[in-house]
Amino acid sequence: MGREPGAGARLGGDAPPAQAPAAITWLGHASVLLELDGVRLLTDPALRGRIGPLVRLQPGLPAAALGRLDCVLLSHLHADHTDLPSLRQVARRVPVLAPRAAAGWLHRHGLRDVRELSPGAQTRVGSLLVEATPAAHDRRRRPFGPAADPIGYMIRGSRSVYFAGDTDLFDEMARLRGDTTVALLPVWGWGAQLGPGHLDPERAAAAAALIAPAIAIPIHWGTFALRRPARRPQDPAWPAREFARLTRQSAPAIEVRVLPPGGRAEL
After folding, report:
1. How far is the CA of 246 from the CAs of 72, 168, 187, 194, 206, in angstroms?
2. What is the phi/psi pair of residue 245, to 5°?
3. What is the structure's pLDDT at 222?
4. CA-to-CA distance for 248 and 256, rounded, in angstroms?
5. In whole angstroms, what is the distance from residue 131 CA to residue 151 CA?
6. pLDDT surpasses 90 at 187
7. pTM for the complete prediction?
8. Mean pLDDT of the chain
9. Which alpha helices (DSSP H) does 173-230 contain, by range?
10. CB of 114 closer than 8 Å to CB of 5
């Protein structure tokens, strides 16, 4: 069973000074490379061209091109967020933070160093403080996989970054108000419709207004689709554009940056 780090737990060594470049690279879906204060974190790696019935609409970034990683953050165990082959490529020797009750299953599938977090729990990765936040999403890995309560992450250093993972709108997002430089918010998924436990552009814009980050970056859109071309979206970028439009209307002080897969935003 994995252990849950307390506020004093530390992963990785001391990081370089805070003058190191700060940047976010969106790799597609919920996979984000965060470079902050010399620490490099990767969220929900889904790097392959195909995951189950889903195929990637644009070429992905090979794992070898990511460079050094200090930690991987997993929000929940759904196959498009916890892709075991992708994890084995990047995290066999890298610490992994994951929701409570996920460690045993991840250990059995080849990951060595898994630390569990419940909402409110904190740990340090180099100079960064990483806190698990609540999320409203299905806890089961269907059809017969394990279950673990989804989480998001707040990463604090010289800047603060909220990675929502996969979630619906919930009132506790307002607690992040005034504490967030960048919010990475899911705005869609991979199908023609969204089930419960997801943000669409309208609800994601409402989440952005609640959190009031300086910068909002839409993620979880336009990356994967079902293999049958007839069931693929006609306009994969629509959710991101719509989120940007609605956020500009409801919260014009927020800067929305829409990145293409592989796109990088300097902070």
Report:
1. 31, 17, 12, 18, 9
2. -65, -45
3. 92
4. 8
5. 10
6. yes
7. 0.91
8. 89
9. 201-211
10. no
pLDDT digits 0-9 by tens, 103-126: 999 999 999 999 999 999 999 999
Specify the amino acid at residue 169. Answer: L
**At 179, which helix (H) or strand (E)?**
none
Q: Which amino acid is at 249?
A: Q
Which fold, 19-266? Metallo-beta-lactamase; Chain A (3.60.15)
Per-residue pLDDT of 13-66, as tens digits, reads: 544 444 677 999 999 999 999 999 999 999 999 999 999 889 999 887 888 889
Question: What are the structural domain ranges in the chain?
Answer: 19-266
Take residue 114 and report the two structure tokens written for it.
């898994």
| The pair of three-digit structure tokens given for residue 105, joined into one six-digit string | 């299953």
Task: Render 25-88 in DSSP notation, one character per residue.
Answer: EEEETTEEEEEETTEEEEES---SSEETTEEESS----GGGG---SEEE-----TTTS-HHHHH
CB 224 within 8 A of CB 51: yes
Which helix (H) or strand (E) element contains residue 189? none
Residue 102 carries which side chain, given as an amino acid letter? A
**Inter-CA distances, 108 with 63, 112, 133, Å:** 22, 9, 26
